Amino acid sequence: MIRTAALVGLLLAPMMAAAQVEEPDDYRMDHYRAPVPDTLAGATVVDTETAHDLWSTGTVAFIDVLPRPPKPENLPEGTIWREKPRHSIPGALWLPNVGYGALAEVTHDYFRAGLARATDNDLGHPVLLFCLEECWMSWNAAKRALEYGYETVYWMPDGTDGWTFFDYPTEKLIPEPLP
Question: Average of pLDDT values for 46-60?
Fold first, then answer.
């Protein structure tokens, strides 16, 4: 006769194994809203409370990489287009669309310029990248920041979902303009 705890363990083991996501060798190219790995080689993965502690020091550049939906083409005349506001971590720089797996050169340039602005062009200045919970955009962007040569890269997998769960302050962000 199998004990209850052993039976529960047998039933949950496949689900728990499925929940663990392996860190890929390259960028995530699709299905960006999905479980993410617990690691990012070369970066420091931080939970929301640690991110808040870093934010409180004022010494880390916070970079929000949530994508920005484009205005639909060919809207009927007179249609009012209202973008959804982005409420994020105060003082963060919003660099939308830099977390996709493949980027056009103009988007690489935009990301590099935004990082340079946030860090006073200092590759040694720490940066923390985030998006939403279970969002590969921030994982991709943090990996890319490492490849650009940034030495201290933090990645916060829980993003603003985790931040607001702890009831930390937020502010409305405006996307960094294209150069």
Answer: 98
Beta bridge partners of 88: 171
What are 90's two structure tokens? 């105060």
Side-chain-facing half-sphere of 96: CA atoms under 13 Å: 14
State whether residue 173 is helix, strand or coil. Answer: strand
Yes or no: say if 130 and 65 are a contact pair by the CB < 8 Å rule.
Answer: yes
Tokens matching residue 26: 């390259």
> How would residue 10 be classed by pLDDT, with cut points 50, 70 and 90?
very low
Q: Which amino acid is located at 22 in the chain?
A: E
Q: CB-based contacts of 152: which residues, under 8 Å, 6+ apart?
A: 44, 124, 125, 126, 127
With a cut of 50, say whether residue 152 has pLDDT above it: yes
